[in-house]
Amino acid sequence: MTKLYVGNLPFSATEESVRALFTPHGTVETLSLVSDRDSGQPRGFGFIEMSNSDAARAIQALNGKDFEGRALRVNEAQSRESRTGGGGSRRY
């Protein structure tokens, strides 16, 4: 199973519309769109899980594709542990 990051989604995107976009490329096992904790407003990205071969097909077909006026970013999600950054030691 591969987890995909789907970014630059229009704020009007729904789980149904995103599922419909990915379904022609394989079976969508899970789908979650991220919303702001406080306001509940969409954040413009989400995650989808698909089988490895379906995920590769979806990345190939949908990365950079226009979806409701926005060019999608679709790639394999990075695990939280491997992310860097934060810059916690900066002083202003």
Any overview of this molecule?
This protein is α+β, with helices and mostly antiparallel strands and 92 residues long. The protein has one domain (2-77): RRM (RNA recognition motif) domain (Alpha-Beta Plaits, 2-Layer Sandwich). Helix content is 21%, strand content 32%. It has 2 helices and 6 strands; from the N terminus they run βαββαβββ. Strands 2-3-1-6 form a 4-stranded antiparallel sheet. Strands 4-5 form a two-stranded antiparallel sheet. The longest helix has 11 residues, at 52-62. The mean pLDDT is 90.
Draw up the topology in text:
Elements: E1 2-7, H1 15-22, E2 30-35, E3 42-50, H2 52-62, E4 66-67, E5 70-71, E6 73-76
Antiparallel strand pairs: 1-3, 1-6, 2-3, 4-5
Count of individual beta strands? 6
Rg (C-alpha, Å): 15 Å
Number of domains: 1
CATH class: Alpha Beta
Helix content: 10-25%
Q: Which class of secondary structure composition applies to the elements?
A: alpha+beta
Key words describing this protein structure:
92 residues, alpha+beta, Alpha-Beta Plaits, two-stranded antiparallel sheet, 2 helices
Question: How would you concisely characterize the structure shown here?
Answer:
The chain has 92 residues and is an alpha+beta fold. It has helices at residues 15-22, 52-62, and strands at 2-7, 30-35, 42-50, 66-67, 70-71, 73-76.
